[in-house]
């Protein structure tokens, strides 16, 4: 059987050629791995982070032909609107918006959680998706479609002890992706979430000690990697995921079985 009979042409070459993806939290961990993967797949990438350090490194490695960087708080509406406009000015479209920026939560009993900790989790891990949608959905509607991806968490699907605000924000992020998926399907905008288990990134030690951050937590016997998440995001962002919307994909080595 000829491979062309079963595999679309777009899935046998670089998968993001001619597309533009905005990735938040791009200076570190999963965001950075996604920037590198999407560039390797031929796409243009707009790398967004609240800190410039990681972005500067990306600029020095990849130059500026296919990469634009922006130091920006992903939960600040005016700043995100500005990034979307910069993207349009530079690359002419926003094909994918990957809401990946997040903040951790140091595990503690619910009665010790402060208002500030609760609010920061809701703002960065949940409200930023709303901020991004307001900025990017009108652009995608005008373009005739687009893809929105959210990095949620296994903690949002299966809460672990002492992670209250984080599990609520990530559970909300997953649910919000589904709500957007059903609302935006008629506009040909696909919306999905990736739900990593404990992942070996600079964020991991910031959750505090516990079973939730050990490789023992997964049947495949290792932590998630930043590249595992980049690969799942690539599937959802590319034509390979063209009939996939409203999913929350566990990237969890089987923990959710
Ligand atoms: N590491 C894990 O165990 C794990 C597990 C499940 C889900 N997640 C989620 O994965 C995503 C990526 O995390 P990571 O593990 O790569 O962590 P990371 O700390 O390596 O990277 C997170 C990046 O987000 C940036 N950021 C934080 N607040 C921001 C804001 N308001 N605006 C823009 N950028 C901001 C940080 O500066 C940092 O560069 C997060 O949403 C996180 O909650 C992480």
UniProtKB/TrEMBL annotation:
GO terms for molecular function: oxidoreductase activity. The keyword Oxidoreductase applies. PANTHER family: 5-KETO-D-GLUCONATE 5-REDUCTASE, ALCOHOL DEHYDROGENASE, PUTATIVE (AFU_ORTHOLOGUE AFUA_3G03445)-RELATED. Keywords: Oxidoreductase. It comes from freshwater metagenome. NCBIfam families: PRK07231.1. This is Unannotated protein. Belongs to the short-chain dehydrogenases/reductases (SDR) family. PROSITE patterns: ADH_SHORT. Gene3D superfamilies: NAD(P)-binding Rossmann-like Domain (3.40.50.720).
């Amino acid at each position: 059987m000829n491979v062309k009979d079963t595999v679309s042409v777009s899935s046998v070459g670089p998968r993001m050629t001619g597309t533009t993806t905005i990735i938040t939290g791009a200076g570190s961990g999963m965001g950075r791995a996604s920037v590198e993967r999407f560039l390797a797949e031929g796409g243009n990438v707009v790398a967004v982070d609240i800190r410039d350090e990681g972005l500067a490194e990306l600029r020095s490695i990849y130059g500026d032909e296919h990469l634009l960087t922006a130091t920006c708080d992903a939960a600040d509406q005016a700043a995100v609107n500005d990034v979307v406009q910069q993207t349009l000015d530079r690359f002419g479209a926003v094909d994918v918006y990957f809401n990946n920026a997040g903040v951790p939560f140091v595990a503690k009993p619910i009665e010790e959680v402060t208002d500030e900790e609760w609010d920061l989790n809701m703002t960065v891990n949940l409200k930023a998706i709303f901020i991004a949608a307001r900025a990017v959905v009108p652009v995608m509607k005008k373009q005739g479609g687009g893809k929105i991806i959210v990095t949620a968490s296994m903690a949002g699907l299966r809460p672990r002890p002492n992670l209250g605000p984080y599990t609520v924000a990530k559970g909300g992020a997953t649910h919000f992706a589904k709500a957007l998926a059903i609302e935006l399907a008629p506009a040909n905008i696909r919306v999905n979430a990736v739900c990593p288990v404990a992942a070996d990134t600079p964020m991991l030690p910031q959750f505090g000690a516990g079973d939730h951050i050990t490789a023992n937590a997964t049947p495949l016997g290792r932590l998630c990697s930043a590249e595992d998440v980049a690969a799942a995001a690539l599937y959802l962002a590319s034509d390979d995921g063209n009939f996939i919307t409203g999913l929350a994909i566990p990237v969890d080595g089987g923990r959710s079985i």
